[in-house]
Amino acid sequence: MNIVPSQPVWLFDLDNTLHHADTGIFGLINRYMTDYLAQKLKLSTEEASHVRQDYWHRYGATLAGLQKHHPEIDVYEFLQCSHPLPELLEALVPMENTAATLANLKGRKAVFSNGPSFYVAALIKKMELLNHFEALFGTDNFGMLYKPSDQSYLTVCRLLKARPVDCIMIDDSAENLLAAKKLGMTTIWFGSKSHDLPFVDAAISDMVTLDRWASTQGLGIQAA
User: Fold this and answer.
1) How many other C-beta atoms lie within 10 A of the C-beta of residue 174?
2) Fewest CB atoms less than 10 Å from the CB: which of 50, 148, 166, 192?
3) Residues spanned by CATH 1.10.150.450 within the chain?
4) For residues 6 and 201, what is the distance between their CA atoms, to the nearest angstrom?
5) Residue 147 neighbours by CB distance under 10 Å
6) How many Å apart are CA 180 and CA 169, to the nearest integer?
7) Rounded CA gap, 200 and 168, in Å?
8) What SS3 state is found at 111?
9) How many helices (H) and strands (E) does the chain have?
């Protein structure tokens, strides 16, 4: 396990970390991705859904599969068409107690998401969390890379002028945390399904628990 940095840079995933993506937003994104693939690749809806899921399972992101197998597709257009902001914002369900917890955490904070930057910015603004973060990163901010690619983490660190060992990565994906741990980051597995693993420094179910954990580490205002 890492020694938790005393002046950390908190890197927050977005989907299913800062908001409940599974309650509606992911369903909408998946539907629009499927419709886009069906149209562009001339597939049935069922075939397009299979392609979308296959690329997500194999590469960690549908976008990655498109980059690898379909160079004729404009990935920026794909991201725009699959993230219709008015509908997504309507379906947004923020994580409970997020603002209070962010306010209590000592150190710098940034959002590090595999979603496109316009989506990240819109959701953070809608949740009224902008003042808690010094930077918001989406996949187009680090060269259309994505977690768990090492280069995506290193690019975010470079943009923040931070070392990996200074960072605390908070994510609902164990695979993303494994990559972060290999680079030297402190790792927090967030969500109701989290549990202890060798590469996880803390398994935390919700924001209130994160606040308490930070306090025990001397990283919350309650610890002062």
Assistant:
1) 17
2) 192
3) 25-89
4) 15
5) 25
6) 7
7) 11
8) strand
9) 10, 6
The answer as to CATH 3.40.50.1000 being correct for domain 9-20+93-217 is yes
Q: What distance in Å separates the CA atoms of residue 38 and residue 106, rounded to the nearest whole number?
A: 46
Residue ranges matching CATH 3.40.50.1000 in the chain: 9-20+93-217
Instruction: Tell how far CA 122 is from the center of its chain.
Output: 14
pTM score over 0.70: yes
| Token pair of 89 as six digits | 């914002």
Q: Judge contact between 220 and 106, C-beta under 8 A.
A: yes
Sign of CA dihedral 110, 111, 113, 119: negative
pLDDT tens-digit profile, the chain (224 residues)? 567 887 899 999 999 999 999 999 999 999 999 999 999 999 999 999 999 999 988 888 899 899 999 999 999 999 999 999 999 999 999 999 999 999 999 999 999 999 999 999 999 999 999 999 999 999 999 889 889 999 999 999 999 999 999 999 999 999 999 999 999 999 999 999 999 999 999 999 999 999 999 999 999 874 43
CATH pick for 25-89 out of 1.10.3720.10, 3.30.70.100, 1.10.150.450, 3.30.420.40: 1.10.150.450
